[in-house]
Specification:
Blueprint: E1 4-8, H1 15-23, E2 41-46, H2 50-59, E3 63-65, E4 68-73, H3 88-96, E5 100-106, H4 122-153, H5 157-174, H6 186-193, E6 203-208, H7 219-231, E7 234-238, H8 240-248, H9 251-260, H10 267-279, E8 281-287, E9 291-298, H11 303-310, H12 312-316, E10 318-324, H13 326-331, H14 335-340, E11 345-347, E12 358-363
Parallel strand pairs: 1-4, 1-5, 3-9, 5-6, 6-7
Antiparallel strand pairs: 2-4, 8-9, 10-11, 10-12
Helix pairs in contact: 1-8, 4-5
Length: about 375
């Protein structure tokens, strides 16, 4: 299980350039005019995790299979998108289908690249796009609420509960606040996510800076970081042009290039890590002579749920999981050493999977 992240923003902020870098393809046309992305582009990329190579070397696996993340490059939104301006409506529907939103913001000056709003103001850009998403969410809820009120008034319990949940979002949206700010109980979180609200999704602000600011950021990116902190969102600073250059380099040349501009790793790595944190995801591993493989589950998942990510039969017939923490596996130089050190565990159905667990599942056929 990976997750789907929608890349959104105004036209000409670097969305398609970022997408090209992430997928290491030129599938998304990057051009200096609005709406160059006519169909949402979808690309799967491997989630970089240095632990995979370490585990593979210890187990002498034949291959490494990382977990994957899906990015959707969505055409630039403009003022009035919620009313169909530009290519608004069809792409708003695409945003509803993703798990998280990577909001690309232009944080660089370049007279050769036009800005649809005629100025460089990433915080203002974020507010333009968020306003359109809030208006679309509000319109969607208000269309659904009238028939629901009739059912609630007639005494239907489910309708009353759903109406109360929708009203939490409506109150926020009418105040100009995104739906993700709703105060929800644990029982309400699942049904709330099913409302299909774009502004309820976790947001990662991607500050697209010039190459010289890729390592330290600039005044624009710092303003976005302050905004993100104030609203409980997250922000990363990258240079989309740099990321595209990195993606085109042979692996052996990437480190020297990163060193030359003061970066320890590509921005993609940071984006994925923050995305995992936003969605509450973690990685566990299966290791053997044939392959070392990464798998993704949500935090709080138990043994049977993790087994089910590999195959539904594993979940249904789950008995227990042979489990070694990543650090213990490495310290023991493999399963045998971990066993000798007393770090090999048999975990039952109530075991909560930890990030980095090396697992082998026992199940009934």
């Amino acid at each position: 299980m990976g997750f789907k992240c929608g890349i959104v923003g105004l036209p000409n902020v670097g969305k398609s350039t970022l997408f090209n870098a992430l997928t290491q393809t030129a599938a998304a046309q990057a051009a200096n005019y609005p709406f160059c992305t006519i169909e949402p582009n979808v690309g799967d990329v491997a989630v970089p995790d240095p632990r995979l190579e370490t585990l593979c070397a210890i187990a002498k696996s034949e291959e490494i299979i990382p977990t994957r993340i899906t990015f959707v490059d969505i055409a630039g939104l403009v003022r009035g998108a919620s009313k169909g301006e530009g290519l608004g409506n069809q792409f708003l529907a695409t945003i509803r289908e993703v798990d998280a939103v990577a909001h690309v913001l232009r944080c660089f000056q370049d007279d050769d690249i036009t800005h649809v709003e005629g100025r460089i103001d990433p915080v203002g850009d974020a507010e333009v796009v968020e306003t359109e998403l809030m208006l679309a969410d509000l319109e969607s809820l208000e269309k659904r609420i009238k028939p629901l009120e009739k059912k609630a008034n007639s005494g239907e319990k489910e309708a009353r509960e759903l109406l109360a949940l929708m009203m939490k979002a409506i109150v926020l949206l009418r105040e100009g606040k995104p739906a993700r700010q709703a105060q929800l109980s644990a029982d309400e979180q699942g049904p709330y996510s099913q409302l299909g609200l774009m502004t309820a999704k976790p947001v990662l602000y991607v500050c697209n800076v010039e190459e010289g600011a890729a390592a330290a950021g600039n005044e624009f990116s710092r303003a976005v970081e302050a905004k993100a902190k104030a609203e409980g969102a997250r922000a990363v600073t990258i240079s989309c042009k740099v990321e595209e250059e990195i993606a085109q380099l042979p692996n052996e040349e990437r480190k020297d290039f990163l060193d030359s501009i003061g970066l320890e790793e590509p921005g993609l790595n940071r984006m994925i890590r923050v995305g995992y944190e936003l969605l509450g995801l973690l990685t566990f591993f299966t290791v053997g002579p044939k392959e070392t493989r990464a798998w993704t589950v949500t935090k709080g998942s138990k043994g049977p749920q993790a087994a089910g990510v590999i195959h539904t039969d594993f979940e249904q017939g789950y008995i227990r999981a042979e489990t070694i923490a990543y650090a213990d596996y490495v310290a023991g130089k493999g399963e045998a050493g971990a066993r000798e050190a007393g770090k090999f565990r048999l975990e039952g159905k109530d075991y909560v999977v930890a990030d980095g667990d090396v697992m082998h599942f026992r199940f009934n056929n």
